[in-house]
Design brief:
4 strands, two-stranded antiparallel sheet, Ferredoxin, Alpha-Beta Plaits, electron transport, about 20% helix, 7Fe_ferredoxin, 4 iron, 4 sulfur cluster binding, single chain, 4Fe-4S
Length: about 110
Amino acid sequence: MTYIVNDSCIACKYTDCVEVCPVDCFYEGENMLVIHPDECIDCGVCEPECPADAIRPDTEPDMEKWVEFNRKYSEMWPVIVTKKDPLPDADERDGEEGKLEKYFSEAPGEGG
């Protein structure tokens, strides 16, 4: 089992999760985070930290696409270990549907 970040993170990018991760397996894109599925130790401490409920176990239905999504971008983006401010419109975008199609950017974040 591993944990993944889904599209609920897009355009919010809360980073509360990165501070509690004991293995630094979060990677930062321009407007979301992902978890490297091969580095995640399945401890689950990140899941309750996410205000957007974007971190889910891969054992839930239809998660395989998110495992591969997280794997792809964690290999392209820099690691993030320090909490940062969420994106400016995070509160308005939290819970919005269709964020993958509307807002997702493949561009890397700054990491750090």
